[in-house]
Structures are given as C-alpha cells and as structure tokens.
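Notes from the 1:1 (GR / supervisor)

We went over the backlog. Supervisor wanted to see one worked example end to end before approving the batch request, so GR pasted a single chain during the call. The sequence is below; no edits were made to it. Supervisor asked that the structure be written out right there so they could see what the output format looks like.
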Amino acid sequence: MAALTSASYRSFGDSALYDFSQLSPIDFEELVRDLFSAHFGVHVEAFGPGVDQGIDARFSGKRGATIIQAKHYVRSGKNALLQSLKREVPKVQKLKPNRYIIATSISLNPNLKNQIKEIFESVNLVVADIFGQEDINALLRENPRVEKSHFKLWLSSTAVLERIVHSEIYNRTEIELEVIEALIPKFVQNKSIDEAEAILSDGGSLIISGHPGVGKTTLARMLSWLHASQGWDVFVIDDISDAYKIPNNGTKRLVLFDDFLGQVRLSPDHVRGLDSKLPPLLSRAEHDKNLRIILTTRQYILSQAFQISHRLTEKSNPRKYVLNVGSYTRLIRARILYNHIYFSGLSTDQINSLIDDKFYLKIIDHPNFNPRLIEILTSPSYSRLSSGDFRASVERILENPHQLWERPFREHISEDARALLIATLLFDRVAPLGSLRSSFPRISKAMGLSVPPAQEVYRFNSALKELEGSAIYIVNDTIQFSNPGVRDYLQSVVTNDFLIAPLLTNSETFQEVKACWGLSETSRALRPPTASDSEIWRHAMEVQRLSGAAPILEGILLCLQIHGYFGDIRLLHIAMQWVESMEGVAFDSSETDELLELLSAIDSFVEVGDAQDNLRVAVTNAIYLLLENHADEVPLADVEQLHQVLSNFNDVDGRGTQAWDRALTLIIEQIEYAMQEFGTVEELDEFEERLKFLVEAQRYNGPLPQLKIEERREYLEYKETEGYSDYERSHRTGSVYSSPDSDSSISSMFDNLNR
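Structure output shown during the call:
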C-alpha cells in the first residue's frame, strides 16, 4: 500500500496542501470551474471535457470574455504540461479572449510561470492569471464551501482515514485503508449522495437497495466516511442485536449494517429476530437526531423480506427509508468507466484496447453495465488472473457476466486454488485462516484431489498466494472474498458440479454442514428428495451430535429442518437424542431468537405427537430457565413474544408461573438501567405498554416502578422540546455540470486518456 503522508493529503480545514492526485482530470476541471465561479462571484459556463476548443470554462464581463483552461498534469509532470500548453496556443489565438486563465495541479515556481507566460506571449497572458497547485490551495482556503462540496479532495486525507480507523468503522485496518484509498478517486459524485442524505436527514435511517454490483456498499461507505469526518462515531455491525448494545452517551452515532438480510439469499438466520428488532431501531433513529442507521441489501431479498414478515411493516413503514440505486445516466456511466480506467494501473496497451475504435461506447451502452463489473474488469489483478486478449475478455464478459469468473476458475487457476475457494465458501462472511487451513485437505478430497499430509501446508500456502489480491483478501488472519460476485459464482459451481454430496461427506464442522444445507437450496428446488441424499444428511447430523462440538440449539433446529424436507424419521430421532443434552443447560439472552425459532420449527416440521410434546417440553423448560436468570438482559419486545408463544402451552406444574414471577422481578429491579437506552418518549411508552401487559397477564404482585418511569418520561420530554439542530447537509455534490452525453462529447472525455 502506498504510504499516506501529510504532504500528499490534508484534512478539511487544515493548512497543508492538497496535491490533487486523488482527482481525475474531469474532477479537477469541475473543481477549477466551481472555484473560479466563487472567486469572481459570477456564473462560469462549463463545457464538456475535451470538446472545448481550448475552453474548459468561460464567463463574460464588462470587458469581454474570460476563458479558463484546466490542466491536470500532476501525474505527468511539468514537461508534459508545457507540451500540452504549446498545443493550446493556436486555439487561444483563434478565440481571442479578453482574458486567459490557466489553472494546473502542478506546483509552479516563478521560473516555470515565466516559461508558461512566454508560451502564450501572443495571447498576452499575465503571470497573475497562471494558477499552480499552491495558488489553487490558497483559493480553496478563501472559499471553504467549494472545498466542502468537493469531498473527494479531503475525504482521503490522513486525518479522516485515521479517524475512521480509530472510531472502529473497520477493524481490518490495513486492508480497509487500501480499499478507501482506491475507492475515493474512482467514485463519481452523483445524485445518490444528495438523495441518501435527504432520507437520513428526514427519517434517521436509510436502506440502500439495488441489484448486485450497482454500488450499494460503495455508497454506504462514502456516507459512513462523510459522517466520520464530521464527528460521528461509526459502528459496523454484523447482527441487528449489536445495534442495541451501542451506548447512548450523547455522541453522534452512525450504525452501518452491510447486507443486513444476507449476502446471497434470504434465510431464517437473517430473518430471525429482525422483524421484532428492526422497527423499534428505525423508530429510535427517527426520533433521536444523534443516531443514524444505514442498511444495504439486494433488491430482490428486500422484497422477499417484506412478503415473508408482515411484522416488519406493522408499526412502521420501512419502505420510506429505501433508496433504490443503480439507475445511471449515460454521462455518469461514462464518468464511472473513465475514472476506473484513469486510476486503474492498467498497462498502456490495455487502456488503448478500450479506447481504440471507441470501444468504451459499447461498454457504456451495454445493458449489462454495472460499477462492480467495471471495477473488476479494470483491475490489474483480474487481468492477470484472466490472461489472454484483454479487449476480447471484456467483450465476452459484457455479453455474459457469468463468465466473469467462469474462465479464470475453470482454466486459469490451479486445482488447489479452486478447492481453496470452495472451502472459503463454506464459511459465512469471513474464514479464519487456521480453520480454512484445516478444511482445505478435506475439501480438496471432496473435489477429487489427493493432498498428502506432508504437502498440506505447502499446497495451501501456494493456493493462497495464487488467489490473494484477485479473488480473496487476507485481513487480520481471516480470508474474505474480494467482492460478493465471487460468492455468487461459486454457489452456482457447487450446484452445477453436484458438489453438495461430496462436500457434505467430507465435512467435519457444524459450520460446514450448515453451509452445505444453505447451498443445497437451489438443487433441492430442482429435483425431489431421494433416499440416498437423506442417508448422507442423516449421517452428517449424527456425526455432529456425537462430536459434542456443535451448538445444541442450532444443531436441533437444522436437524428438524432437514427432517421436514426428507421426512426421514431417523433425523427426528437424532433431534430427540440431542434434546436430551439440553436438560439443565442455562442458555443466555443471546440465544433467545434460536429458542423461539426452535419452537416454531417444532410445529412446522414435527407431526409425531409424542415427539412434538417432548420437544416442546424441553424447549419451554430451557426458556423458563433463561427467563429466571437473564430476563433483564432480553429486550422487552422479545420477552413479550416469548410470553405470547408460551401462552399456547399448558402450565401443568406451575413451572411457568414461577419463571414469569422471577423474570418480571429481574426486569423491574433493573428498569432504571434499561430505560437509559431509550432516547425518545415513544420508546418509553412502548416499553411501559409491554410491561403493563406482562404484569396484568401474569397477575404479578410485586412492586411496580411507576415513579421511575414518570421521571424518565419527564427527562425525555425536556430533551425533545429542547430540540436539536439538524445535521448540516454540507456534502452536496457541488455544481456537477450537465454536460452533453453525445458520442462526440463522451469521446472527447476519453481522448485525454491518451495525452
């Protein structure tokens, strides 16, 4: 990773210089235009990049027209700048402006300014109208609103990056710094930033939805970093319950949950507890100006979630927080492709292959265009992985995006690398390096490879080295895919290559078995269950039960789900044997959702009367034990849901009454602590309503905390009437020009890649 130094960047409002290296030539032109518009206090007319005949911007005054020419040559150097300026002389002579201004990103000393003046001697250019890097920085200090609107300038500064790291926006420091550094220059400012901030400002929450690859995570990251730079503490979570653990200490808090409904498909794991926890969280953010929530999800998964879980929309309307992204104008598409090529590190030959014959127009107008596809195709690591004719590869993948990983996977990586990718697929979001190393020889065997014990470490490390930087990243001793598209593709490989059975046969950990069940969803939909498949799953679950290492609740739940599909009574017997080990186990509050889902699964998948009754008794006893010991740690909404479910069962021996008395005592004893988390009167009212319901339903006779509740209500009412200032929407995308999107205009933009 290139070192980040204060000489290269500065944070917004600092006194050090920008070197503008994070801007493309088009970005630089926009900055120059906005800067001189503010400096002179006039409207500056913009021209499309390239088709300017020597004009990047122009304004008229009493003495005639003033022409502004922007030259972004910080990467090329002074000699390239001087040669380019010499080519401008005939154009400027023909235009005969009253005043000619040159603005360049290169640092200019007096001698270099005089050289430029001499080049334009026939135009009567004055030294005062030659603006170098230092001069533009001086204008930025005089016009902070321009600086603020062009956030790509300061968002990649060392100070901002360090704040992001220190606020724990990401724990994976080194790799995330690389991601940030690479992302910001390529990002194209567009209306989605303004639209997203409007939704956040109005409702405190934002659900970014769209098809795979359209830029949901990129937008979420940009918004998170913009907030972090303005003093918000950013928390990245992997479970909705974690949002409730974030302390309400009066600071500004932004919560980011990427792929909050799952990365590939909607599953019970991702829906579990979401319908009870998400609406209150969205309500809290709507009433607390110091809290904001950003969620991302694929559009089709969000639609499924709304259809499956009506509780998501019972008390609120999450749809009002949704921003669908991915609809790009032709000009924005061109800018996305341009920026990715400009900052790509591709070879000159590769860049020329995209420019020759205006091939870029075909890319921009292709129906399969999306930012992720462009990001991968312009990555040098991918071009090395795919090999062959670069332009032909791009054209082939545009026609069939599925081929993005097909040819590299099938033809250009080793068998060991393929096995390592499949092994990584069997983990959730990240794969611990040690666990992946252990699974590698077993997954290799499942794929028909032989890895002698003496070669395991060497072949694993070789495969890891082969894939690092292209399909996978290594982050703090964990492995993760470089983008979700790799996981999408590998899932199709497992289905098309009929790998479920061999993978399951060679799996040892519960995580691997559970992953195989999720991956088998597609194949289960394509063909009916068979006795041989059932036998493989039965054996795998028996191995997990006997190992004693599998989580009890998840193990029983998975066993019941598999039994529900195959109807194999032997799987039900395994679940019953597993249940016997539950007796006396004290589950904690984090397992509330699993217990609730297990009760639901019993009714859904178990039809045998005695087995159903025995399972219910075991699970309800476990819930009673949980309530007696940890009721004060469980959100009251979940406690109420437990009560609703358990009320369907007869309390034969009074066990339930005893448990509920103890649970309510615990909740009331800790009520002051619980109420500290409420930031609005509405949240407190919901809490009080639930508590009253439970007290009346259980005929609880203990002391009630009415006075404490009223004291908290008075405090919250005072806070709400005192008011908060809305978050300043200071990151508007500036006056992004509405340049023509004709072929000639876009072609002129790409022509300067050859300069």
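Supervisor's comment: The chain has 38 helices and 13 strands.
Batch request approved.
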